[in-house]
Amino acid sequence: MDKPRRYTLEFKKQAVELAATLGCVSKAAQELGIPDVNIHAWKKTIGQSQGKSFQELKASAEQEEIKRLRKENADLKQCNLILKTAAAFFSQDHLKKSMG
């Protein structure tokens, strides 16, 4: 049996927004290839989420994305530093062998 799919908060918000734009949850669900029950649940959750407006929820999702991207950027910088250090180490080793 397939694992249940996990959807990001941004996807859920966009699905709810699409349903509102189309004026029909079932059409939006069909376009996205998901059960319409999901959109109904997300719509309820997003609407009740601590009394926040949709714009506030969107800003919150953007903050989460920025946080994720900053972490990814820091990880990539660390990888680059490791690769530069390794390259310097191996180039020095190569020089020592050719001189000796």
Question: What would a concise description of this structure say?
Answer:
By secondary structure, the protein is mainly α. 81% of the residues lie in helices and 0% in strands.
Overall description:
The protein has a single domain (9-99), classed as Arc Repressor Mutant, subunit A, CATH 1.10.10. Helices cover 81% and strands 0% of the residues. The chain is built from 4 helices and no strands. The model has no long low-confidence stretch (mean pLDDT 83).
- Please work out how many helical segments DSSP would assign: 4
What is the top-level CATH class? Mainly Alpha
Mean pLDDT: 83
Task: Please write the string of helix (H) and strand (E) elements.
Answer: HHHH
Shape: elongated
CATH topology: Arc Repressor Mutant, subunit A
CATH architecture: Orthogonal Bundle
Give the number of domains. 1
Please compute the radius of gyration using only Cα atoms: 24 Å
How far apart are the termini? Answer: 63 Å
